[in-house]
TrEMBL record:
Entry EC number(s): 1.11.1.-
Tagged with keyword Oxidoreductase: yes
UniProtKB keywords: Calcium, Disulfide bond, Glycoprotein, Heme, Iron, Metal-binding, Oxidoreductase, Peroxidase, Signal
Name of this protein: Peroxidase
Organism annotation: Massarina eburnea CBS 473.64
Organism phylogeny: Eukaryota, Fungi, Dikarya, Ascomycota, Pezizomycotina
Residues reported in the UniProt entry to bind heme b: 249
Length: 356
């Protein structure tokens, strides 16, 4: 019986694929996750494959309130108690998406209804946890190591993330969720906490780290555009993906690149997930009168021939950027994750998207 069901899965997903139609026909970037998505796939693996190839959107706007009877056996986004937790989630990974979501909404929303400093730090935290990986790494990636006790918070590139790390560790111990899942869940939650942010498809079920991530895999703000493009390519991202990803600086501030201008935002509206960043970066002359701080890396990327067409296309086009960001971030949130067959989608537990 089970056998027949599994045999029917590829057919089912094929039907889905035809019905969905292509959203984006650009060439897929190289990357090891595609190597894991071959042969017979379950529904979630097929979904991930379809998002990465542009057949399905990386955004999912479906929302579900916490069910009255919330059991992980009925809904994988509900909490469960050990030892009843499905073993697929690993020893210490207990999902309780609805409760974590409510908690993060409190932590990430400012009095003005926009996303606050905790949220922007969480957005960066998810990237720094997952991004310390490339296709030659045998460990690392989206494994929660930055939140765990491996000392990564003391690395120079993680300066400024210590506060949100402490916050997330409290959430982890309160709700007993996996570190790896929480790092990515918090990124996606913070993104949607910013008005205009996309509801990026959110998966749970990753395994937690057993050691610190490899060093020297995160970008240097003073590096050349060619080196940055190559660094992200080794993680499976195209130059276009990179153009979309750095748009997260729409919700960012800097403190350590120029400490004399600590707290300066990287776009005019850091509490809003909008495309102002792309225009702001292009127009900024870097003088003392500028209200926005432009990172040297963003400046060189914005004019690089492999990036600039996409960069300019994002100016004034929020839906285009949100789609491309979500697609690229789904890949980010799964870097180094091997047990794709165990994952479940819990996007429905994220809050509603906000307009301004
Ligand atoms: C070329 C790639 C990138 C470089 C060189 C870079 C570099 C930086 C630097 C230097 C800062 C300022 C840190 C500080 O002084 O406090 C920053 C902040 C930030 N970055 Fe990036 N970044 C890159 C890509 C990304 C990506 C892919 C994301 C998310 C997906 C991201 C999200 C953020 C956020 C949200 C902040 C603000 C943190 C806060 O205000 O607490 N960055 N980035
Ligand atoms: C981009 O910025 C320039 C200069 O600040 C402004 O004149 C223009 O209207 C902006 N364009 C968009 C689409 O926001």
């Amino acid at each position: 019986m089970l056998h027949k069901f599994i045999a029917a899965l590829p057919l089912l997903s094929l039907a889905f694929l035809v019905a969905a139609g292509p959203l984006d026909l650009r060439e897929a970037a190289p990357g090891i996750i595609e190597d894991l998505l071959t042969g017979i796939l379950n529904i979630v693996q097929q979904l991930i494959k379809d998002v990465l190839s542009g057949v399905k959107s990386g955004i999912n706007d479906e929302i579900s309130a916490k069910p009255l009877v919330c059991l992980t056996t009925l809904d994988p986004c509900c909490p469960c108690e050990l030892p009843a937790c499905p073993s697929i989630h690993g020893a210490n990974i207990i999902s309780s998406g609805y409760d974590v979501s409510a908690e993060l909404t409190k932590q990430f929303t400012g009095p003005d209804g926009q996303c606050n400093d905790n949220a922007r730090a969480a957005i960066r935290f998810g990237f720094h946890d997952a991004g310390a990986w490339d296709k030659d790494s045998t460990f690392g990636g989206a494994d929660g190591s930055l939140m765990m006790d491996y000392g990564e918070e003391n690395r120079a590139e993680n300066n400024g993330l210590q506060g949100v790390r402490t916050l997330l560790r409290t959430v982890q111990s309160t709700y007993k969720v996996g570190y790896a899942d929480l790092a990515q869940y918090a990124h996606n939650h913070a993104t949607i906490t910013c008005p205009k942010g996309p509801r990026v498809r959110t998966f749970i079920g990753r395994k937690d780290a057993t050691q610190a991530n490899p060093t020297d895999k995160l970008p240097d703000v003073h590096d050349s555009a060619d080196n940055l493009i190559a660094l992200f390519q080794r993680k499976g991202f195209s130059a276009h993906d990179l153009a979309a990803l750095v748009g997260a600086h729409a919700a960012a501030k800097q403190r350590f690149v120029d400490p004399s201008a600590a707290g300066m935002p990287l776009d005019t509206t850091p509490g809003v997930w909008d495309v102002e960043f792309y225009n702001d970066t292009l127009n900024n002359q870097g003088g003392k009168n500028e209200k926005v701080f432009v990172l040297p890396s963003d400046k060189v990327l914005s004019t690089h021939p492999k990036v600039s067409d996409e960069w300019n296309a994002f100016v004034g086009d929020q839906p285009h950027w949100n789609e491309d960001y979500a697609k690229a971030y789904v890949r980010m949130s799964l870097l180094g994750v091997q047990n794709l067959k165990d994952l479940r989608e819990c996007t429905k537990t994220l809050p509603k998207k906000k307009s301004l």
